[in-house]
Amino acid sequence: MAACALAGATLLGAGTSALAKGKGVAPVITDNVEFAARQMQLMVDTTDTFKNIPSPRTTDKNGRLAYTTLDDWTSGFFPGSLWYLYELTGDSKWLKPAVHYTEGMERIKYYRGNHDIGFMIFCSFGNGLRLTGKESYKDVIVTAAKTLSERYRPGAGVIQSWPQWRGWDCPVIIDNMMNLELLFEATQMSGDSSFWKIAVSHADQTMQHHYRPDMSCYHVVDYDSRTGEVRSRVTAQGYADSSAWARGQAWGLYGYTLCYRYTRDPKYLKQAEDIAKFIFTNKNLPEDLVPYWDYDVPNIEQEPRDASAAAITASALYELSTYVGKKEAKQYKKLADRIVRTLGSPAYRAESGKNGYFVLMHSTGNKPGPAEVDVPLVYADYYFLEALKRKRDLEAK
């Protein structure tokens, strides 16, 4: 995914201006939103020429703000965060940069370089459409869904993630579950059911082939694109082929929760709850609920954490809590609240004006790379803001 469902008005729709400004809102929300607004204003001031469309991603080796290209899978998170600040603060000053950085990404609707067009387009244009109703954004989303659909391999029933490298034929990573939101929404916007059918097929195949009996998942499954036979199950960013890469578990939790949102198929709800059970009963999950980068890495207490995995998990749990019974809902919300409090504490939230102007510290992008180890990451901030928004909406009921 990326953002939140356009259809989920109660949980995911825009809040009132009174709520946005903090009336009756939990202090943990107002404090973190105010801090995020200060940090991101510095980021916009540093970044913004309103001529170019830079894409903040992380920090460099000197701790300075570092950018990537619009073709990078993370490019939609910066405009998406601006949309969330517009929504959470109720301050119209965020509208101009949100529109600017979103519309600057329009060419990505044709981008065929990776499967992450769902992240790239729906975090930006999806949130923009939800908050402004701008009709032209629908065309961008539907066109992007058509582009993503070109990666669908009917023989295997999946959307191919990466090219045929490392000896793979049709590699699919668990992250790809997050791109299904774009397809579900495109069907609702266009009436073209082919997007929906692709999303369901991919979710079903991933459920069958990515998950182990303990409900942890592999990072990469390589299929025979013609027959659908599984050729191998491996990792790229986890510790080992058989280990549970932390952010991968979070992607799965979020992905199956959103699949249930659209389809109301109980198997997806059960899948999401089973993944949550794996995460929160894991003996290697720290007391503060921010996981190490992999649940199975040796000497784990010496390893870096991944705040991005925690933020994704918290956001998913808030939504999951709306689909289950009262007892389970209370449990999921309590866990999400604990994560939000932890991430908003000095242990993970940066000092004002530091950390490249990102909100959260201590995320891990690709430890085996090694790349982006124990640094801020733009998507950690995005999902943290989304979690704050979802918490606010839940508590406004």
Keywords:
single chain, 397 residues, mainly alpha, three-stranded antiparallel β-sheet, two-stranded antiparallel sheet, 48% helix, disordered N terminus
Describe the protein's architecture and organization.
- With 397 residues, the chain is mostly helical.
- Helix content is 48%, strand content 9%.
- The chain has 14 helices and 9 strands.
- The chain has helices at residues 9-12, 17-20, 27-47, 77-89, 95-103, 117-132, 136-149, 180-190, 193-209, 246-263, 266-280, 307-320, 326-343, 378-395; strands at 55-59, 65-68, 152-153, 158-159, 170-173, 220-223, 230-234, 363-366, 371-375.
- The strands form 4 sheets. A 3-stranded antiparallel beta sheet has the order 5-6-7, with no helix packed on it. Strands 1-2 form a two-stranded antiparallel sheet. A two-stranded antiparallel sheet has the order 3-4.
- The chain is globular, with a radius of gyration of 19 Å.
